[in-house]
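From the shared-data thread, chain only:
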Amino acid sequence: MRESYSRVLRTASQGYAVDLSAFLVAWRTTSLPDREVIDALVHPAHAGPSPALAVVLAQWPGTYYWSDEPDGRHLILTRPFRRRQERWALHVVLFLATLYTITFAGAVLAGGIPYSGPLAFFTSGHPGYPGFLHAWSTGLPFSVSVIAILLSHELGHYVMARRYQLDVSLPYFIPVPIPSFIGTMGAFIRLRTIVSDRRQLLDIGVAGPIAGFLVALPLLVLGLTLSHGAAAEEGFRGLVVYFGGAPQIPLGDSLVSLALRRLLLGRAATISVHPVAFAGWVGMFVTMLNLLPMGQLDGGHILYARLPQWQQRVALAFWLLIVALGRLWIGWYVWGGLVLVLSRGRLGHPPVLDAQRPLPASRRRLAWAALVLFVVTFAPVPFRL
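Structure, as tokens:
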């Protein structure tokens, strides 16, 4: 039993509507800005839980889960405080702006708006452009697909964090109107509190990539069925994004995209990628980038949750790996630098409230599943430019 445990629990008159002390051996209470967390060692007679404890837990004004530890079964209880007000207007404006820029990018890919150079958004991406509404709407299949992937990824994180009663923001979408064939830099949420333990960290970290992958996979399949073979041209083989009447972006393969294109399109040397297929490919790319086990990327959260003592060494090894891969694709240099900036020069991971609490076997298996997902979506050269 950890030294910081006590044998004094607040009574109902001190703020709890439920008194659990009769079922517990010892407990400790941690008060945080957004919630109160109680780690309670349950008496062996009630660790089943007993019918009496189950009745009382049904009245608990928050969430709880069990943790099997060397000294017995623990209850991890959370009682949330009042939630802060979200700035809905900012989130809605960013979402609509991102939908606009992605749809424009999709319209260029679909041929609805001609590509006139890096500043095409400013010369053609406005309502004054002749036939703009019809031309812009041709990009909706691409934009709706990309938005669905990004939104599902971020909502995976958000819903899991809210399940644990954590203070978390709504998704922030990032529009990119300047030369971009995607129209966005993605989206993110802000976790505005410390995570209680490694189980919570792993659940939150893995929920986003899994949710995004489950949306991206059928979109990639659908898009590939709408794609077709094209005449081979020098420097353009495999999956190729066409716009402006010519091949423009050769895409690198992951195990997933390679298997699906071979299954659906045979051994065609060059494939003209439909915008929906490109959106699905982008979803795989986003999943792979987020699962890199570094800093505070999703993969970094998962690595720290599974192997906290190895986290810094593995993160450094992967950072050196992607820098080495920069010789194959310059974007790896950009991503390596961005990871350092976002982590303030440190590849380590901030601590959780209780790092000693063991990770359940089910979460260890989930960490292995995340590793498999990273391997099958990894593309050493995402863009063969």
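The CA atoms of residues 124 and 130 lie 9 Å apart.
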